[in-house]
UniProtKB/TrEMBL annotation:
This is N-alpha-acetyltransferase 20. Belongs to the acetyltransferase family. ARD1 subfamily. Residues 2-152 form the N-acetyltransferase domain. Coiled coil: none annotated. The keyword Transferase applies. Catalytic subunit of the NatB complex which catalyzes acetylation of the N-terminal methionine residues of peptides beginning with Met-Asp, Met-Glu, Met-Asn and Met-Gln. Proteins with cell cycle functions are overrepresented in the pool of NatB substrates. Required for maintaining the structure and function of actomyosin fibers and for proper cellular migration.
C-alpha cells in the first residue's frame, strides 16, 4: 500500500530515481529547501511499504484576491511506478489542500510536447488556460501550457476562461 506523507529533508538524498525522467524538472537543493520551508504542507511524497520514494508533488499557495490559487510546481512519479494512479492521488491531495485554503483554482505548467501528462491533466479536469512561449529556459522550441482547474470558491469558473493569445514568461503572474 502506498503512503502519502510530508516530504522531509532526508528525502532529498533518496529521490534521485524519481527525477531521472527527461520531462521532470530537477532543481538545486536550495530550491527544494525553500519550498519545504515556506510551503511544507504542499510538499508530499508517495512512499512504498519498503520506504522507496515512488513520486512526489511540490507546490505552493500564491496570488491575491481572485488570483489566490494552489500551484503545482513539480509532480513526478518514478518510471517503475507509473500507471498506478499515483500522480492523480498526489494532485488530488494538492487540490484538497487548496480547497481548505480557499483558493479559487489550481494551476500548473506542462511542456506542450508532454502529451501523456496533458492527457492525464485533462482527464483530471484541467483545461489549457494559456500558452506560455519559450517557458523552459528560453528554448524557442519548447512552450508550456498553463493548465487550470477551478475550485469550488470560483462559482462562476472565471479563473478557467482561456486566454486567446499566448504570453511570455515575464507576463505570467
Amino acid at each position: 500500500m502506498t503512503t502519502l506523507r510530508p516530504f522531509t529533508c532526508t528525502d532529498l538524498f533518496k529521490f534521485n530515481n524519481v527525477n531521472l525522467d527527461p520531462l521532470t524538472e530537477t532543481y538545486g537543493l536550495s530550491f527544494y529547501m525553500q519550498y519545504l520551508a515556506h510551503w511544507p504542507e504542499y510538499f508530499q511524497v508517495a512512499e512504498s511499504p519498503s520506504g522507496e520514494i515512488m513520486g512526489y508533488i511540490m507546490g505552493k499557495a500564491e496570488g491575491i484576491a481572485e488570483n489566490w490559487h494552489g500551484h503545482v510546481t513539480a509532480l513526478t512519479v518514478s518510471p517503475d511506478h507509473r500507471r498506478l494512479g499515483l500522480a492523480a492521488m498526489l494532485i488530488k491531495f494538492l487540490e484538497e489542500l487548496s480547497e481548505k485554503k480557499q483558493a479559487y483554482f489550481v494551476d500548473l505548467f506542462v511542456r506542450v510536447s508532454n502529451k501523456v501528462a496533458i492527457k492525464m491533466y485533462q482527464q483530471l479536469g484541467y483545461i489549457v488556460y494559456r500558452v506560455v512561449l519559450e517557458y523552459y529556459n528560453g528554448d524557442p522550441d519548447e512552450n508550456a501550457y498553463d493548465m487550470r482547474k477551478a475550485l469550488s470558491r470560483d462559482v462562476t469558473k472565471k479563473s478557467v476562461i482561456p486566454l486567446t493569445h499566448p504570453v511570455r514568461p515575464e507576463e505570467v503572474d
